[in-house]
Design brief:
By secondary structure, this protein is mainly β. It has one domain (2-51). Helix content is 0%, strand content 48%. The chain has strands at 12-13, 22-27, 30-37, 40-48. A four-stranded antiparallel sheet has the order 1-2-3-4, with no helix packed on it. A hairpin with a 2-residue loop joins strand 2 (22-27) and strand 3. It is globular and about 30 Å long.
Length: 52
């Protein structure tokens, strides 16, 4: 997660939003949806993908 500060667009475009600023980070079976806004990374949701 710390590397997001250096390169916030390194993760794939979100499957759940039609906007390049929304990203999905996959980590140990979890999906972390976040939004890149200027110099800020806003985490919107964390969920285990199997439950969705």
């Amino acid at each position: 997660m710390a590397s997001l500060l250096d390169n916030p667009y390194r993760c794939r475009k979100s499957e759940y939003f039609d906007d390049e600023n929304y990203r999905d980070l996959i980590y140990k079976g979890y999906t972390i949806i976040y939004k890149v806004q200027n110099e800020t990374i806003m985490i919107l949701e964390i969920f285990k993908w199997q439950k969705r």
